[in-house]
Amino acid sequence: LAENALTSLHDEEYDVPLNLQNLNHSTMVFTKGRTSTSLNGSWNFCVDLLDTGLRQKWYEMQPANPVDRVEPWDYDPFMGESIPVPSNWAMLKEKWYFFEGSAWYTKKLPPELFKKRESDAESDQRYILRVGAAQYDCKVFLNGKFLGNHYGGSTPFYVELTDDLAEETNWLMLCVNNTRTLDRVPMRNTDWFNYGGVYREVELFSLPREFIRDMFIRLSQDGRAIEVDVVVDRAVDSAVDGPSIHHAHLEIPELGIAQKINIEHGKGTCRIAAEPERWSPENPRLYKVVLTAGEDRITDNVGFRSIVRQGVDILLNGEPIWLRGISVHEDDDILGKVTSDEDIRRRLAHAKELGCNFLRLAHYPHHERAAELAEEMGFLLWQEIPVYWAIDFDNHNTLKDAKNQLIELIKRDRNRASVIIWSIGNENPDTDSRLSFMRDLAETARLYDPTRLVAAACLINHAKLKIEDRLVDHLDVIGINEYYGWYDENFDDLYAIGKNSDPDRPVIISETGADGDNSSQGPSGGLFSEKYMADVYRRQIDTLQKLAYIKGMSPWILYDFRVERRQNIFQRGFNRKGLIAADKSTKKEAFNVLASFYHSIKD
Ligand code: GCB
């Protein structure tokens, strides 16, 4: 066999450890606001249901003219079909609509990069690849070498390429697998579409030898200071023992802050007395923050505000607040989970029209631009991880995966004033193993971010007709999803639950609603009619607004969204509980019902 020939390996000879999760939160790099080389655009693509590529080591193939080859290849990573990145393959060709399995992406890195590397000034640069999100498991290969594996379909991951870059041609390959398995988060059954693929931006960052790895900045708990944590990274082969950077500089010009921060063993922390104007939905005031360390410099626009729970109240900047919210999925009729500023701005404009000050970003981490634009436009956010319905709560690796997704979300967005709640789960059965799993997640959220509230969508005891869930003791805010008037037809039960429950902390109705098919195929009355749906909203609002411990609601949901499991004649592959149809423009009657309630309580 030729040196680079393919070998047909048996399954047990895989040399790619499938359970490796080495691209986790510990490899994250602060990239917000930095310039990058985009790797979006056309990538060679091939689906691989049988995981042939791992056995035949497609990642080791070298580009060669087909006529010069001595071996038959089952797939040619360098020619053939291509797809755009970001995208979800289900949205591109009918033959890929329900495909679940592995798919290979191949791209040649832009050669300009290496021309730069030849010059002296750039030779000391480090190259970090960032993949915004790939559903669900992504293995990264550069020039035939396996560089790492990331689990979790909605958070970014980072791989350093520096030491494996060739001088001329560099081939990057990603093997992305979206198979629903029992040990993943979420597990096998969800009420949203399993969109596979690399569906957020892929970028390459060129950073100095020692760079700023992380910055966490916030208003102190006592409200009298700004606190900042800094982490600096150095090249592993550096001759110095530890980073040579011993201090960083923080500047917030509009507050007159220019502060030196001591860095020891790569870390620094600092408290600076300050009186920033408070960020709020009415006054989304942001301050430009600049951090420099050695040759590196990062900037961010940050809002300063406080959010605490006091009894059954949620206090924003010390004042009780009622959350006029709406739930939203990251879903598009044409693009799947691919989103854009335009898409997010339209969503926020619809929320404003409803009179909202709050959105629940369900059921997984959305694109980071959602939190950034919400911060700019003055919305509060609930963000969550997909610990959804049944999860393998006894599995240690599943907990590791869920925890990692939570930490990646927190580290990505914890400088965003818009985010006030981290939610750790949705409607999970109240078992001992779930309790210890979720307690661990709640502690993790507080460890990585002591400044926000922790919530979950909890349970109602339907026999006793009251809110009852052992998880509540570990949360700041109780989310309740209830569908009286829809799945639960006896509306009187909702009055009973309201009366029988006496929570000692705030409750948010994190979901309620009904399906309404407003197309020409929709019914004119009864279940699935727009009219029935609007009526459910009226009755829900009437009942819920009388309960003093309810501090907000985020009905289900802003837009109709695609899902495999909804196939009746009115659903036709969509959950139709949207206040607006899947075209993101046609409003249903219930939109106006909710809007008039929110506008009436707004002032
Ligand atoms: C729920 C789930 C949500 C579903 C919704 C529904 O309780 O949390 O993901 O889409 O109900 O429409 O049934």
TrEMBL record:
<feature type="domain" description="Glycoside hydrolase family 2 catalytic">
    <location>
        <begin position="313"/>
        <end position="593"/>
    </location>
</feature>
<dbReference type="InterPro" id="IPR023232">
    <property type="entry name" value="Glyco_hydro_2_AS"/>
</dbReference>
<keyword id="KW-0326">Glycosidase</keyword>
<dbReference type="GO" id="GO:0004566">
    <property type="term" value="F:beta-glucuronidase activity"/>
</dbReference>
<dbReference type="InterPro" id="IPR006101">
    <property type="entry name" value="Glyco_hydro_2"/>
</dbReference>
<dbReference type="InterPro" id="IPR013783">
    <property type="entry name" value="Ig-like_fold"/>
</dbReference>
<keyword id="KW-0378">Hydrolase</keyword>
<dbReference type="Pfam" id="PF00703">
    <property type="entry name" value="Glyco_hydro_2"/>
</dbReference>
<dbReference type="Pfam" id="PF02837">
    <property type="entry name" value="Glyco_hydro_2_N"/>
</dbReference>
<dbReference type="InterPro" id="IPR006104">
    <property type="entry name" value="Glyco_hydro_2_N"/>
</dbReference>
<dbReference type="InterPro" id="IPR008979">
    <property type="entry name" value="Galactose-bd-like_sf"/>
</dbReference>
<dbReference type="InterPro" id="IPR051913">
    <property type="entry name" value="GH2_Domain-Containing"/>
</dbReference>
<dbReference type="InterPro" id="IPR017853">
    <property type="entry name" value="GH"/>
</dbReference>
<protein>
    <submittedName>
        <fullName>Beta-glucuronidase</fullName>
        <ecNumber>3.2.1.31</ecNumber>
    </submittedName>
</protein>
<dbReference type="InterPro" id="IPR006102">
    <property type="entry name" value="Ig-like_GH2"/>
</dbReference>
<dbReference type="InterPro" id="IPR036156">
    <property type="entry name" value="Beta-gal/glucu_dom_sf"/>
</dbReference>
<comment type="similarity">
    <text>Belongs to the glycosyl hydrolase 2 family.</text>
</comment>
<dbReference type="GO" id="GO:0005975">
    <property type="term" value="P:carbohydrate metabolic process"/>
</dbReference>
<dbReference type="Pfam" id="PF02836">
    <property type="entry name" value="Glyco_hydro_2_C"/>
</dbReference>
<dbReference type="InterPro" id="IPR006103">
    <property type="entry name" value="Glyco_hydro_2_cat"/>
</dbReference>
<feature type="domain" description="Glycosyl hydrolases family 2 sugar binding">
    <location>
        <begin position="38"/>
        <end position="208"/>
    </location>
</feature>
<feature type="domain" description="Glycoside hydrolase family 2 immunoglobulin-like beta-sandwich">
    <location>
        <begin position="212"/>
        <end position="305"/>
    </location>
</feature>
